[in-house]
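Handover notes (outgoing to incoming on-call)

Open items:
1. Acid phosphatase: sequence verified, structure written out, both below. Nothing else pending on this one.
2. Nothing else urgent.
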Amino acid sequence: MRAFLVAFSLVGILLAGPVSADPKPDGAYVRSGDVDLVALLPPPPIAGSSEDKADIAAVFAYEKARTPETSDRAKADNEMTIFRLAGVVMGPDFTPEKLPVTTAFFDKVKRDSGKPTEAIKAYYNRPRPAAAALSLQALLPLPKNAAYPSGHTTWARLNAIVLAAMVPEKRIEIFARADEYADDRIVAGVHYPTDIAAGTIAGSLIAQKELENPAFNTDLEAAKAELRTVLKLNATQ
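Acid phosphatase structure tokens:
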């Protein structure tokens, strides 16, 4: 895990270069080439290495510790919507029906996490835990793409950063829920701990690039105003 921390300490330097003049992102706000996760993240553990064996052991430990409650939550957390991720934190008024601007905004945010993660998944092509350890019983059908890094975790961390900027009063709860959501990928048997660690960094890197985009910040302020009005929160936060 130390390698992940060292890598994360360097990425701010690597991302601080000049912004390209090309104004057309292939995501909603970010071009996939602006966040080169192959360059910015450490590689996954080598198959058969001590770190790889520790990853496999951790997944089996999670399987053994499953309860009906955690299993049900892990299955439900396969859903990638901001309302599934943060509804338990934000309360009953946090619904797409009441928040059309916020819904559209987070749909756009979601687009920015896809291409960067798919590129690095294809590059390393790390097998899912249940494919590498056939005795493991996954709770979900195995996705067809590779394991590293976790796309759900990347998306959850990105969304947590954005949502916390909109509702800073709930920052602690938002990040705790994003961590739980990410952890549920291990509970479900579809990811290793190092996939989760890498996804957490990846989501942070993508969020940093979004925050550099004026169009993103304009849309963020519009969604923030709607959300804070619906939740009856002080508009000056």
